[in-house]
Amino acid sequence: MPQTPARRAAGRSPDVASLVRLHHRRRGWAWVGTGSAIGLVVYLAIGVDLTGTAGILSVVAVFVLLALAVAGLVVTVADTSRIHRADAAVQVSAKGSVSHYPLYAHAHRYPPRHHGSWVFGVVMLVAGAGIALALLPAQVNSWAYLAGAEHQDTFNPVSYGQACRPVSRGGGCSVVTEGYLSSSGAHVTWGSQVPLGQPFAVRDPLWAWGSGRSLISGTGPAIGNIIAGLFFDGLALLLLYVLLVTMREKSAAPVQRRPLPAGAHPGAGRRTHPGRGHPPGGAPRRTRRS
Description:
single chain, alpha+beta, 7 helices, 4 strands
């Protein structure tokens, strides 16, 4: 009879069980730290300056990713050090208990092997989904720019402003030009300083909100917006997948059956049809008339 995880855990010594838990926790925090670090690198590589609600949303998400990346690195290094300091025989036994788990198992399965790192992994995915939401208008406008779906319009420069990047993106401020479009009247931003009162032709953005207020100046920025947007869209889809798996695993919990008393016949617990001595659906016994 195959042993269940509970029986296997009960048969381990306390040192082995503690080391197995460290292995699962290290794996979970390694996923959290690596994913957060990759998200930060992708966000720092793009050149979209977000303002307003989208800017606040993205800044909060970036600091969450930064904190999780540092925490993931610290916990992974600390757990690795504790694992290597353990007794050699205990290390071999613990490693044999976790070697059959694939590397991707901790990222999505439920219930998780270590709840703490799993929760922070979900927080990382939520932060990535927040950045994806903030970048969505710029991504839509970039696809439309490359496809030629945007119409020609005229940008009217009105005033200068400053676009300051947070410390997480290198800091510093640059001069931008605020204005409006002649056709739609939408208030938009040009990413550099241009002479005021001298209108020039631009592409009319399809979604002039948040990150979509920044006009696209060429093919290069459009491709960068698309690549970054697809990365964070993938994190948002992974978050949705994890939530669906969690709901499915919770709803498919096994139903415990009531055990039968010793010596009882398997069919003894069946209900009989009211007023008859045979089970429901069974044919009644025929009697021969004399």
